[in-house]
Each structure stands twice: as C-alpha cells, then as structure tokens.
Amino acid sequence: MTNLKIRKLKKPFGITIQDIASDKSISHRCVIFSLFSDKPSTIFNFLLAQDTQDSLNIAKKLGAVVEIDENKTTITPPTNILQPDEPLYCGNAGTAIRLWAGFLSGCEGKFILTGDEYLLKRPMSRVVKPLCNIGANIKDLAGFAPLTILGNTHLKNFSFHSDIDSAQIKSAMILACIKGGQNSTYKENNLTRDHTERMLDCMGANIKTENGKIIISPTKKPLRPLNITIPADPSSAFFFAVAATIVPNSQIVLKNISLNPTRIEAYKQLENMGADITYINKENTYEPIGDIIVKHSSLVGITISDNIAWLIDELPALAIAMSIAKGKSVVKNAKELRVKESDRISSIINNLKLCDICCEEFDDGYEIQGSGKFQKATINSHGDHRVAMSFAIAGLLSGMDIEDTDCILTSFPNFRSILRSLYQD
Ligand code: S3P
Questions:
Q1: Cys-Cys link to 223, which of 203, 266, 310, 362 (CB 3.0-4.6 A)?
Q2: Would you say residue 342 has pLDDT above 80?
C-alpha cells in the first residue's frame, strides 16, 4: 500500500498540461464497441490505466487481438466471441462490469465477471434486474458480483424508464439490445453522459434519440470500426482546475479535454462559485474537444441539486473548492455518491473533518462551511482514486498525508508527475 505525502506549495504556478489522462469512460467503450465490428478499430490515446487495461484483457480473453504501438491501439475483433475458460476481471471498474454484463448477455456462451474487493461491494442489481427482465440469464451473489452470465441472442424487446440516472445502466441495456435483442426504447429522467449514443451512432448502429427517448434496434450486420482519438478526461483534468482556482495567483492550461456538455458541469458550477474559466473549442469528432484555461480567483459557496449525473465524478474535488469558498455550500440529490468507488459522502465528509473543515453529512449529500484553509491531516482514500487525488490537491495549500494511494493508478497513472510539476519553476 503506497502513501502520498504532499508538501505545501509555497509559490504560484503557471503551466500548460498536455498529458492529462485520456478519458476513462470513452476508453472502456472503445474496447467493448470495437467487438461490434468485423474490422480492426484504431484508437489513439487509449487510457493505459489499470481499469482500462483490465477491459483490454477481457477483450483479449474473448478472442480480440490487441496491438499497442506508442499512442496507437488497434483492436481486431474475433469472428465469434470466444467463451473464456476463466473469470473476466474488471478490477475496480463499475463501468467495465456493467457494460460488459450488457454486452455479454447478448452473446452465446458462459461468462463470469468479477472484480476487486471494492467492486464486489457495489450494487449490481441495477443492471442484473433489467437485463434478466429481457431474458438474460445472470446469476449474482445477492445483488453483487461475481456475475455468471449464460448469454443468448434471443433477448426480448424493452421499453425501459430507469429510475436511476446512470450512464452505466443505459449503456448496458443498449449493448444488450444491439447484441442480442429486439427494437427497444430507453428513457432516463435526466440525460446522463452520452458517449455510448454518440460513438455507436458514428459506428452506424441503429440508435437515435427523440424527445429524450433513445430508440435502438439490434444490428443485422457488423458496425463500422472505430477510428478515434480519445480526448483527455475532464474528470481527471478537474483536479488541476481546482488546484489553479485555489492556489493564489496561479493559472493552468488544460489541453485537449472533452467538452461534452454532460461532462463539464463541474467546471460550470466552479464558475458559478466565482472561478475564472475559459473554454477554447478546437474540434468536434465523436464529441467536442478543446482547451480549458483556469485562473485563480476567490470563491463563494453554492448549492448544487440539479444535473447531478453530469458532475457526479467531480464532486469530491468540488468539495475541496467548497471548503475554500466563502460561506456555505450544499450538495443535494446526490445519493448515488454512496455507491461509487467508496461511499463518497462519508469519505469526503470524514476526511474534511480531519482537515478541520466544518461540514455535515446527509443521506443524499452534504453541507460544507468554507473556511479558506485546510489543516494538514492524515487522510484515508478508502481505496477511492478520486478521494485520494482530491485531498492531494487540498494538500497544495496545507500539506497532506494520504494513505492508500495505489488506487490513483486505476484512472490517472501520471497524476503524481503532473502534481510534481506544479512545484517546479
Ligand atoms: C460512467 C458513468 C458514471 C460515472 C462513472 C463512469 C460511465 O456512473 O460515475 O465514473 O462511463 O458510464 P453511473 O452512470 O453509474 O452514474
């Protein structure tokens, strides 16, 4: 178990970061979606972090050939999905296990999906139930992984309105339909990240969204392969956006970030708190991509209760900004935080208390009284990469000792080297 000791940063920084980790959500999808084609998919800037390497290994066990040449990853799909002779390991990744569950439900064969100690504690009924309702054969352990799937290509049609806003549930259902289902529709209360819809549409799948309803038909023939350059992950970049906002006189340029509106809501809320943020749109392939410039500014507290799915992954880092802001901040309607890589409501609030921040936990969120400063503390990541990185950013102001930081490697292998660069002239 590695620990991270963060020193207080004694001077401002002004840097451009070219190598924020590539987008995790899109990388997982590239691996799975490439198996819908009969030709090799070419992926530039695939995220080579633990979570997404685990997804690549699953594709290999299903018969894909993966070649990695510097920043170019080629995935050649098998003619038929092979039945693996061992469990498919999804590591720490909820996205991997839930999306693979949807995909494999519609493939002939027996597949076992499992993961690390944290993933085995996260709820799986949210995908297992709707998939079983359309005829998938999935056995779980009282709602938890491992999942044993006996796939079949004769799934039923569905018209599903999810009561949980989750891109993972949405994607699992779409993948099951395309692989082995019938004409179907999927509706969510609030739009969640829409990479699945965008990417499958570009691959030629029968998928369209009308009046907030996604209409999907199974594919009769193989889809076009992907030829994609994955943008940097806005959730990973956000740690450094918060860093530039809270370290006096600092400025950062974050290059080639996904500017997909379903992914940059945290930046918008940080702006609502007073942050100085500029977006430079550069291209639009699969999704809008550009640079984000963030300059230090003083912040005020805010209440966030809407569009939670659009900033769910950034709430831990936003909590650091809320602790520095003037006045009270409140987060509501965010119960989903309790079933992420850790119970993020507890892990954020308990660790903030250790840093002498006045805050209170609610069932579906929290309240933070901004104090302008942190007390250096020893905090525990609870095995959650975003908790570890958020408190590392807080440590720039006060110093911080963070226990159990191996988890950072699941999404952002070069986080520590970028953090170190803030200390250089
Ligand atoms: C993800 C969706 C979100 C997010 C996760 C990645 C995805 O989860 O928290 O980090 O790639 O689809 P939910 O859709 O379950 O909220």
A1: 203
A2: yes
